[in-house]
Write a structure and sequence with these properties.
By secondary structure, this protein is α/β, with parallel strands linked by helices. The chain has a 7-stranded mixed beta sheet, sandwiched between helices. The termini are far apart.
Length: about 200
């Protein structure tokens, strides 16, 4: 049963004409299909598998590229330590504004910007390196040169022992990872629409 405060927040969003997560995701997919990449958010099964290898006790900074409507943000915040930080970076201002309104956790920082600038963004928020970086960005359809730059910047932004967590619908993303990461673990998640390739690229 929703709490009175949840009911009030829902009613306020209705008055503003703000869509729910599914409506927002679908709207942005129609506007930017190449960048959003999927017509619906990731499944709970994919989220659980993708985050299962994270050492939460030793995570101070977790970064997500392309958070969308926060499908991963909430599970990450549920697992993070009280003194950890989640930076969510997206080039879509609608998503960033939406997340800023919907997620009030003080550990959460939505950032309008590019994953290709991750080191600068991390430094601007007072950190030297990230422990883990998660991405569902569609690498194979990014503008020329952006995918390789993101992969290189991500490797540089991670601490030794950290990992780049990537979920994709195409295995081509591995071509972007192998020039920078020697150890890459792979799995396949069929319980998702569409089924997804999962990668954990470790910075040794």
């Amino acid at each position: 049963m929703p709490s009175p405060s949840a009911d009030t927040a829902l009613e306020q969003r209705r008055r503003r004409g703000e869509p729910g997560p599914m409506g927002m995701f679908f709207r942005e997919f129609l506007k930017h299909p190449v960048m959003v990449g999927s017509i619906i958010p990731s499944s709970d099964k994919l989220i659980a598998r993708m985050l299962a290898r994270t050492d939460w006790a030793n995570t101070k900074l977790f970064v997500e590229y392309g958070p969308g409507v926060g499908t991963f943000c909430r599970p990450i915040l549920e697992r993070m330590a009280p003194d950890a930080t989640l930076l969510a970076i997206d080039t879509n201002a609608d998503f960033i504004n939406y997340l800023g309104r919907r997620i009030t956790d003080s550990r959460f920082r939505p950032v309008l910007g590019s994953a290709a600038d991750v080191r600068r963004i991390i430094a601007e928020h007072g950190f030297q390196q990230a422990d883990y970086i998660l991405s569902g960005l569609p690498f194979s359809t990014l503008p020329p040169g952006i995918g390789p730059r993101i992969a290189a910047e991500t490797h540089a932004a991670l601490r030794p022992g950290g990992a780049f967590l990537v979920y994709q619908f195409s295995p081509k993303v591995k071509h972007f990872l192998t020039p920078h990461f020697e150890r890459i673990d792979h799995a396949f998640e069929p319980v998702n629409i569409p089924p997804a390739q999962l990668y954990w690229a470790w910075k040794d």
